[in-house]
Protein: CoA-binding domain protein
Organism: Conexibacter woesei
Amino acid sequence: MGALDALLRPRAVAVVGASPSPAKAGHQLLLSLAPFPGPVHPVHPRASEVAGRPAHPSVGAIGEPVDLALLAVPPAALLAALRDCAEAGVGAAAIHAGGLAEAGAEGAALQAELLDVARSAEIRLLGPNTSGFLDPAARLHATFVPGVAAIAPGPLAIVAQSGGVNHQLAFAAQAEGIGVRLAIGLGNAADVDVPDVLDQLADDAETGAVVLALEGVRDGRRLIAAIERLTARVPVIALKAGRADVGAFAQSHTGALTGSYRVAHAGLAQAGAVVVQSTQELLDAARALLCGRLAPREHAGLGIVTGQAGPGLLLADELSVAGVRVPELGAAPRARLAELLDPITYQRNPVDTGRPGPSFREVVATVGGAEEIDALVVHALLEPGALDPVADLSGATDVPVVFSTGGPPAQVADVTRRLAGAGIATFASPERAARAAAALVQDAARAWRRRERDAADAAAAAPLAAATGAPAVPLAAAAPLVPARPLAAAPPAAPAAPLAAATGAPAALTAPLGAPAAPLDAPAADPLDATAAAGPWDEASAKALVAALGLAVPAGVVCADRAEAHAALARLRAPVALKLVHPQLRHKSERGALRLGIATPRELDAAVDALAAIDDLQDARLLVEEMAPSGPELLLGAVRDPAFGPIVVLGAGGVAAEALDDVAVRIAPVAVGEAAAMLGELASAQLFGGFRGQPAVDVHALGAAIAALSRWIAERPDVAEVEVNPLRVTAHGLIALDALVVAT
Amino acid sequence: MGALDALLRPRAVAVVGASPSPAKAGHQLLLSLAPFPGPVHPVHPRASEVAGRPAHPSVGAIGEPVDLALLAVPPAALLAALRDCAEAGVGAAAIHAGGLAEAGAEGAALQAELLDVARSAEIRLLGPNTSGFLDPAARLHATFVPGVAAIAPGPLAIVAQSGGVNHQLAFAAQAEGIGVRLAIGLGNAADVDVPDVLDQLADDAETGAVVLALEGVRDGRRLIAAIERLTARVPVIALKAGRADVGAFAQSHTGALTGSYRVAHAGLAQAGAVVVQSTQELLDAARALLCGRLAPREHAGLGIVTGQAGPGLLLADELSVAGVRVPELGAAPRARLAELLDPITYQRNPVDTGRPGPSFREVVATVGGAEEIDALVVHALLEPGALDPVADLSGATDVPVVFSTGGPPAQVADVTRRLAGAGIATFASPERAARAAAALVQDAARAWRRRERDAADAAAAAPLAAATGAPAVPLAAAAPLVPARPLAAAPPAAPAAPLAAATGAPAALTAPLGAPAAPLDAPAADPLDATAAAGPWDEASAKALVAALGLAVPAGVVCADRAEAHAALARLRAPVALKLVHPQLRHKSERGALRLGIATPRELDAAVDALAAIDDLQDARLLVEEMAPSGPELLLGAVRDPAFGPIVVLGAGGVAAEALDDVAVRIAPVAVGEAAAMLGELASAQLFGGFRGQPAVDVHALGAAIAALSRWIAERPDVAEVEVNPLRVTAHGLIALDALVVAT
């Protein structure tokens, strides 16, 4: 028994507002329900009969149990109708009318009132503002959209926020020959939301794949949990509207770079869903995945076999754009192919057969059997004299096969149907086949990543002695933090605190520049418990945090005045940088609160003078810091998303990064491997891999730092945002040159 | 009469190698030709009859005129067969066999020999290595791919390099209900190439749209000319294979950034073709454009009307990603919509009707009639009780309408067919409809750009007095160039030549830093005629070129020795930069041949010492240059593409630009408006528009400089490459900080 059984598995249905007028939704609902084998009761204030069924003036007057009531009445009549349902002991109700929460304050108030009534009466609510749902196997078509009775039952579950998209997908599934398990549109989702339906499907053995069409996301964490449960058993393919929306609402850089689409995309992918960009791709991917998922694999290898080289080129092109590996075949399969094929054909992968001949099946078997190959894409025109795709492909190889073909439409339809019976998905364009194959590869990569994460979690949970595979920077052992001490509030009687000593981090981390900075003084204050460090953070305390996360920071000294700065200059390796340190100070270089390359006391005096002239930061302190070696710069951040909660962000650093919007996002916490993979998603990834003689990033160290930050932000509700920018890639490792922490 | 009439409009056809064995291509060719009304002659060495037709031992033995011979014989038999054709006076031959130029040197030699025979005999050759072509209206199916007889005649011409892609598209057109005018695969294109076919179609009144599927491009200029002729009359939609290929062959930065796909894409777009990324998009765009092109418009505005908001959101999303404008409606249409629609619906554009009602047609008419709107995309599910798309859309508005719908497949097919009769293209997914609409907008933008360019050309050709709209920097008036004078070859007896004076450019261009640099000396040598400046170019001469192109360069002095450098420092505005100047010197900063921020004679001495230590550049000169104000940096270049000839390249400057591969390309020469549009194609475009307080680029000045460079490179076959990098955007305008010219 699922929590939504009254809604999705009703024994008896009432249609409230069952109109005798055929143009009305209430009338159409009754027509849609005609095939339903259980009782269907029209409810109408006056009519004694609607569409051939006896009608009742209220649900209560039916006199028999009703599991599901479909409310096809206008907003003004909804409360009375729902109360009638409550009194009659109805288990679930669908509200089809629009004009509620989506239409303004008045509608929202009404929706809230309806929800109260439903909750008190333990009625599960679908909608408002939805056309409904359908379950073809149960012959249950609880929707006012006509023409759905012919949609065949099958393994595909369609879950859409929009009723319109739900029906679009259900009809498209019909056209593609995919049977439907459930197709549901949630509308405003006052009560029943996407995760509720996904949880119901997770326990449903008849569901073979789920396609998910989202608009907004209310509770990202619940959504992720529900998808994770599902993907352990069946593939989930997701489409999220709003690609063009790069939400510019957040105040900080990090916030501005993480529009809701990007975050939702990251969340869906982390949860294990294959994310696509159109309704057609949703169904193409589902069709391929319903034929069989690949075993978990980080980068599955695809084989391409073609009867015509030209479409094969388009296919290979599309796979390459999608980032799918098409590995060269090894010596053994190539030797076999050389026996099977004309020497003028290309045989390394893609494998072109020239005009297909009798060896086609054997070629497919050879490529499919190669150890480099996890799945095949085959393209051939229908040429009955030269090729019989059904005979030549069915059972030819153990790996999944996606087929692309062209030919007279009736023949293509016939071959598609027959190959589906053999577990092979057929597409009428090479690019669609390629994208469907890419979905197989993406699904396998998600499963691989999940397995890797679960193994890391298990290792982390194991006793320390056994945890040889634990992350490089266990946060439990991280150094305590130094909170900001603004001069105005607490003039430092204690001597200036060198960051290196204050953080307690190993000396190597704070002295990446060659000669380690000597620890100068004792910490100015007892290290505070991390959770107590609410309130303003300045650069010094923020850097202490990032050092605790396992990132190096330049050796430096926070100084109260000019004299301390001179002392620091004398003890650090010149040239140094001089910065203002103040909790309200962001964008230092734009404010002129940063001077670089100071080598002499005279240059230091000039720099102190310049910084002292910044009017509104008179109570700031001075940070004297060694200069870091050159290298490309990253941005590492963490921020709270309204729907998904804490997230981490990796981007190319500097002003260009923002203009390019070149960032990767993960929901926090994230495992080291998944975090390390973020770098590869950047458009500028090449820049950080040793580009033109510049230092290359240590990808594992970066992943460990991101993972540590993600665990930290996930446990710190008092922190709104962390931004390490720039995080410089040097020959000596990553160095955080500036850092910012914003309290909630 | 077109040049390809013997091939494409034959009166009589021979099939050489007409095999009695049904699996053979030669047999299938005869079957395909069964519906052809003219004589079809099997040629076979022994058979007296093949597939029911009397056979002959040779073409010469037929005894009747033959226009077209289809050669279905293996490579070894081709020469004899073609000579037989030549003797018989055949006008055209198709060679179906593969294994020629694409298979290596031996095949290439045979192909060359075949071409010789064909040229001597004035035979036009199709192929080798193609399945052939079809002309449904003429019932001419000159292809060995079966099943093509049912492909309907109509307005769509399909021109593909690959025979396989040609048939893929022809069958897909059949499935989509698009009639075909011609569908041809060119194979190796030994003789008849894409431009030949396009030229034939340009004169064909029956052709309504052309889809073009390219792999490589042999003669880009001829291709562009052919497409330009066609697009003046009918739309051309192009797909180019090789998106994933970013050719890394060229030696220079600019070359490395312009893989062949990018250049071909630029050439196709400049020629007026709509460029798409899949075979499905090719046909979707063609179907929309066959219903009617928009009037030329730089940024046409689209209206969206929906019956269900959810699919409308996907539609709007896809249009936004494609960069299509969906303008807010004005007061008048909005007032009318307020009368027609429920107040809870969104009415500004997109216009959502809620569940469609009787006002749907009037809503479509209102949005279509709004002055902001050039075309409409309408989405609605098929709900017979609520909406009749045929009645509600046919003739409802004067602007083109693209329709997207969902419903029972047979009903969708019926509505699609009936709406096609009303000039409305229907798609079964909102995203496909959106992309098809984007193709309408792209076609209109291409036409607009062409009109703008033609107007600029006309203005430029007009007498100077009348040419008020002439480009800002007429190259005819540009300053002469200063060639490199390597010290070893010709020690400068003449005094150092300040670039400002040497170029003869207006003082304002060379002194963008505030105070103009005083012209110091007379030019060191007589200005040379530009065409004589072959041979090595150094930075000084390259900068003289860019100044002549209308770009500012920093005030600077080329110096032979330390003493001259000190004199220059005294006379320029400090701080200055010191650079080595040498024709063999590229990538100065990586070589350490560049020192910045030199303010004192002592700093200058240190810098000269450092540069003098660079071993292999002992004969270099020194350039002392004023420092430019800060700002974002561009890269401007020109290079020669093997297929398209001279091209210009604009990219984001610096090392990050290369890692990001963020460049825009145009075939040279290019008009100012088209050149100015390149900036908007950069992923980092935002960075150059006044991002976060940085200077914004003067887009017209940039376009003028690109256009000037493009005209110059187009007339300078002795120059292989020009690279201005960085080209800095400052508050005082564009300044070229470094420049490189490479001779061919």
